[in-house]
């Protein structure tokens, strides 16, 4: 069988709510030389039936059905199963614009020194309406990408990317230790080996809703991202990456020992705390205690004071009072 130009990789777990529309947006692409791998990661809803029905209608769809093993295992399995040299990521709750694949493949053909290409996204809510997001757009050039790593800016929207399969395999694929931010860690490792960019066109509708991973696991996600960035700086300085062989990340209190120097825990804790001040999910949960610890470590700034009224708006007046008292003492 002739290998396709592109493999589309989608992992699904209980994605019935948006799955049909996500699949339809892939099948409506103007570029057609692709296989569509859809891995059902042990769903207990109707996802499996939706995938089977779609596969019966379009032979490009290759279903993979098994028990639940988690997203990182699923992404690495899709890497192995893919028959094409290029892989397009796609999530079960987002929507591709019809010209997405064609434009990204054309870019990679024109720029062989680039191994990953994403795009700007349009933010939508659970009903498909425009969703207000005050964040910056993703970096268009590799130099801007590297700048954002150091300064904490956005890098890539994972479901918007197409990457060269051999580049991602060469760095070991997705690492299990960075659960819920496995893509962020991957980009930081890949950035040492190839150029990465984004097309300044909104080729993906990125959906926001209460049940998505970035809301439910905000603290764990930002913790992993801060540690991944610290590991990136170690590699950049020519030092060994102490996270390279980890299956799971240690508690924050053990980071000084892991990295072999004092101050790493405090630096990582500060980065996490400042990334969580806009998240109601994090501030209603364990992220709040982490924020208080950051203030004890010497954290200051107007953004922390602005979190006090924000907590009131989030329906947490007692936590707002505790935060104000901690800032006043500091």
TrEMBL record:
InterPro entries: Glyco_trans_2-like (IPR001173), Nucleotide-diphossugar_trans (IPR029044). Coiled coil: none annotated. The keyword Glycosyltransferase applies. Residues 7-168 form the Glycosyltransferase 2-like domain. Its EC number is 2.4.-.-. GO terms for molecular function: glycosyltransferase activity. Keywords: Glycosyltransferase, Transferase. The keyword Glycosyltransferase applies. Pfam families: Glycos_transf_2. PANTHER family: GLYCOSYLTRANSFERASE (PTHR22916), UDP-GLCNAC:BETAGAL BETA-1,3-N-ACETYLGLUCOSAMINYLTRANSFERASE-LIKE PROTEIN 1 (PTHR22916:SF3). This is Glycosyltransferase. It comes from Novosphingobium aquiterrae. The lineage of its organism: Bacteria, Pseudomonadati, Pseudomonadota, Alphaproteobacteria, Sphingomonadales.
């Amino acid at each position: 069988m002739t290998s396709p130009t592109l493999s589309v990789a989608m992992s699904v777990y209980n994605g019935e709510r948006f799955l049909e529309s996500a699949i339809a947006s892939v099948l409506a692409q103007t570029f057609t030389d692709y296989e569509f791998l859809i891995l059902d990661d042990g769903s207990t809803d109707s996802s499996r039936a939706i995938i089977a029905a779609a596969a019966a209608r379009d032979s490009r769809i290759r279903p993979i059905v098994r028990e639940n093993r988690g997203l990182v295992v699923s992404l690495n399995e899709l890497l192995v199963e893919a028959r094409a040299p290029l892989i397009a990521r796609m999530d079960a709750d987002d929507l591709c614009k019809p010209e997405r694949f064609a434009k990204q493949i054309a870019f990679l053909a024109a720029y062989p020194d680039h191994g990953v290409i994403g795009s700007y996204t349009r933010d939508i809510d659970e009903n498909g309406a425009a969703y207000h997001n005050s964040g910056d757009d993703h970096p268009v050039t590799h130099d801007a990408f590297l700048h954002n790593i150091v300064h904490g800016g956005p890098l890539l929207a994972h479901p918007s990317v197409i990457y060269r399969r051999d580049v991602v395999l060469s760095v070991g694929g997705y690492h299990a230790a960075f659960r819920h931010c496995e893509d962020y860690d991957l980009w930081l490792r890949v950035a040492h080996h190839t150029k990465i960019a984004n097309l300044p066109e909104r080729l993906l509708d990125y959906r926001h809703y209460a049940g998505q991973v970035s809301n439910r696991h905000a603290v764990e996600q930002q913790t992993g991202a801060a540690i991944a960035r610290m590991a990136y700086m170690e590699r950049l300085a020519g030092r060994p990456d102490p996270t390279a062989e980890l299956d799971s990340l240690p508690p924050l209190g053990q980071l000084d020992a892991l990295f072999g120097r004092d101050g790493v825990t405090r630096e990582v804790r500060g980065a996490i705390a400042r990334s969580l001040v806009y998240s109601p999910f994090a501030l209603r949960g364990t992220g709040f205690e982490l924020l208080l610890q950051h203030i004890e470590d010497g954290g200051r700034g107007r953004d922390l004071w602005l979190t006090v009224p924000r907590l009131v708006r989030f329906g947490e007046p007692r936590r707002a009072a505790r935060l104000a008292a901690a800032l006043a003492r500091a």
